[in-house]
């Protein structure tokens, strides 16, 4: 793929999976939007120069945590209202919350943990399709045989409860829809606990519908007087390809005494694995001897497991650089024993292996796209694939500062973040553009 370069540019920055959309989401603070006092928290403070940003943040009682010269900014922990006072200081150009970002490739999930004391909670990486539905009664989540309350049996603070005292359970339940049209596999999981009188009365079923609730597929049934391993997990890949509904329903006609406690209802889904080199025709370039020799590739991700196929190239040459930890602002010796696996997530190692693994299969085909490239890992995301704008921008800043010494020609950014502003106002987008402009 060809990349447009400015006349003095020597770097092609590959932005794999950088999905920072260009629409607006939340406001970037300026002098025009200070009607509500800014809460305490971590902010990115931009100014006409780095020293001005540092001085101003400290002046209003903030603690500087990151320096990001690439956008003339610092990240700082500010007390309540300090962001408003900062905007009145000379030289300050923009203040933005230190937003979160998530790695691309993380399996999408819908999750209802009932944290809002309601039937419908969106705690996953994507939203459920529509509201939750209460079946058999319509008295809401605070009362009745289908309700959401805080109980010691809940896996989290609050959970869905189905049951009661001498109540008919049949037909009562809860359901919620999810869009699985683009998925090829799906797994339903949930936490389950019971509290009954021990006489065996009371049964609920976990069910899935693929026709809007007209018919239901029963995954399993659960009785009131038994205990169950948790979480319960079920393969519901049969429901992919369209809209699906999951639910829990009472299915017997006897009166019950006790409760079912259901929590963390989650569906994880994804697409089939693919062979990257086949998709991008990298093997055709390999046959021509184009293996990435001499090119430095910086991978800003979760760190790296220093596998032998990443440490050395096809001819045994060393090619793995020391790791820069943007979270701690430290350069770490990749050969140190304690850093043999500095990737608690695995995502960084996965991405780096796609880019540059020198391992070969039985046919002699390389697993990586550029098996002779020099690899420069930058750690800016934690074990859960979560990172902050400040850590990411500090990592990009470091790459630009060391691009010539390490001959960095490619910067890989495989992550996304919820749009917070126009793209030209977003500090992370600004950092990426400055890196491109720096050549």
What does this structure look like?
The protein has 439 residues and is an alpha+beta fold. The protein has eight helices and 25 strands. It has helices at 50-59, 82-87, 276-280, 282-287, 308-311, 347-356, 389-401, 427-437, and strands at residues 41-47, 63-68, 73-78, 92-97, 100-103, 109-112, 133-135, 146-150, 158-168, 173-179, 185-196, 203-209, 217-223, 232-235, 243-250, 255-270, 296-301, 304-305, 323-325, 330-332, 341-342, 374-379, 386-388, 408-413, 415-416. Strands 6, 8, 9, 11, 14 and 16 form a six-stranded antiparallel β-sheet that branches.
Helix content: 10-25%
Main beta sheet strand tally, sense and closure: 6 strands, antiparallel
Low-pLDDT parts are 1-35
C-alpha end-to-end distance: 18 Å
The number of helical segments is: 8
> What percentage of amino acids are in beta strands?
25-35%
Please give the number of β-strands. 25
Rough outline: globular
**Average pLDDT metric:** 85
- Output the radius of gyration: 26 Å
Secondary structural class: alpha+beta
Task: Offer a concise description of the structure.
This protein is 15% helix and 33% strand. By secondary structure, the chain is of the alpha+beta class.
What descriptors fit this protein?
five-stranded antiparallel β-sheet; 33% strand; 8 helices; six-stranded antiparallel β-sheet; alpha+beta; 439 residues
Topology of this structure?
Elements: E1 41-47, H1 50-59, E2 63-68, E3 73-78, H2 82-87, E4 92-97, E5 100-103, E6 109-112, E7 133-135, E8 146-150, E9 158-168, E10 173-179, E11 185-196, E12 203-209, E13 217-223, E14 232-235, E15 243-250, E16 255-270, H3 276-280, H4 282-287, E17 296-301, E18 304-305, H5 308-311, E19 323-325, E20 330-332, E21 341-342, H6 347-356, E22 374-379, E23 386-388, H7 389-401, E24 408-413, E25 415-416, H8 427-437
Parallel strand pairs: 17-22, 17-24, 19-22
Antiparallel strand pairs: 1-3, 1-4, 2-3, 5-23, 5-25, 6-16, 7-10, 8-9, 9-16, 10-15, 11-14, 11-16, 12-13, 12-15, 18-21, 19-20
Helix pairs in contact: 7-8
